[in-house]
Amino acid sequence: MGGVGPDAADLGPDDPAELRRLPLDRLRAIRAAAREEEADLSYLRRMLQGRIDILRAELTRRRDGEPPAPPRDAAPEEDDLVGRLSEILRDAPPRVRGSARHLTVRAPRARRYRELVPVVMASELTDLGAHDDAELADARARLVGYEQQLSGRRHAVQRVADAASSEIARRYREGEASVDDLLEGAAG
Could you tell me which Pfam families the record lists for this protein (predicted)? Predict the structure, then answer.
């Protein structure tokens, strides 16, 4: 899967001093681009997390002495993976408080992330029964590495969005920008 894209600095600065020098419309554009990228990254992260959860569940099942998942060509009633998916993919209570942002779940808009979707979808899950424990553990470790890359990028993008939002709020709070200006821009 390789790297997950350029540095968050390609969106714009997150340094307050640099942001103070930018026009308001540029700040809004930086914030919008960062939020869009965050949504793309969140979508891909969740896809990876689902695959990691499935591999973890299969490895746990095997470790607990249950037989491996049957091969793909086995009768459907022999494979309880589908039956256990809602349990496997259920969101556990978060260990760390996440972002308070509301994100709309959708397929990524940015081309570099859209191109990763097929890679993530095909990641190591075509036939669990055809792989031994070591292969599944290696696949899980690779996916965890990809997820960590996406998480790092997402955190950097969030810093840019937060910094732009803070500067916009500061300008309104200190009277450097006004709601009237915003309304005039929307009307024109």
Answer: RsiG
* pLDDT string in tens for the chain (188-residue length): 555 554 555 777 888 899 999 999 999 999 999 998 898 888 888 888 888 888 888 898 888 887 666 666 655 544 566 666 667 766 655 555 555 555 555 666 666 676 666 666 665 566 788 888 999 898 889 889 889 988 999 999 999 999 999 999 999 999 998 877 666 655 54
Domain residue spans in the chain?
Answer: 8-92+103-187
For residue 142, what are its two tokens?
């690779």
> In Å, how far are 7, 12, 108, 142, 145 from 113, measured between CA atoms?
14, 19, 6, 18, 16
If residue 35 lies in a helix (H) or strand (E), which one and from where to where?
helix 24-63
Q: What residue has token string 């349990």?
A: 87
Which secondary structure element, helix H or strand E, spans residue 49, and what is its range? helix 24-63
Q: Per the structure block, which two tokens stand in for 20? A: 């103070």
Residue 39: burial class (beta carbons within 10 Å; 0-12, 13-18, 19+): buried
How deeply is 44 buried, as exposed, middle or buried, from its count of CB atoms within 10 A (0-12, 13-18, 19+)?
A: buried
pTM of this structure: 0.71
